Amino acid sequence: MSVNSYADNLDSAVRYALETTRATAVCPFHSDVTIRVGDDAAENYAYARARKIIKSDGTMWKREVLMEEIKRQLVDATDGECPQCAYLRDSPRP
Predict the structure, then answer these.
(1) pLDDT 10s digits, 3-37
(2) Is CATH 1.10.10.1920 what the domain over 3-90 is classified as, yes or no?
(3) I need a labelling partner for 51 at 20 to 30 A (CA). Which of 35, 45, 60, 66 fits?
(4) SS3 31
């Protein structure tokens, strides 16, 4: 999918920016789990990338709206590791 196709949807543009800067990652075993890596530099770079993406087609989202979407997605992501994988790893084996 081209970068320009993300520009019309703020949610998708932010998700793309967070994943491509490696600020977040999708669990390889649970595709519905997003993991926050915890790299401040990557998160800052994701903001810059998302801003560039949404401006690429002339869409002008306010800075506050963009920051709220980034914050929402980072808060929704789990910290450091997939909780489902951690549960399976830590559960006692019969």
Answers:
(1) 555 556 899 999 999 999 999 999 999 999 999 99
(2) yes
(3) 35
(4) coil
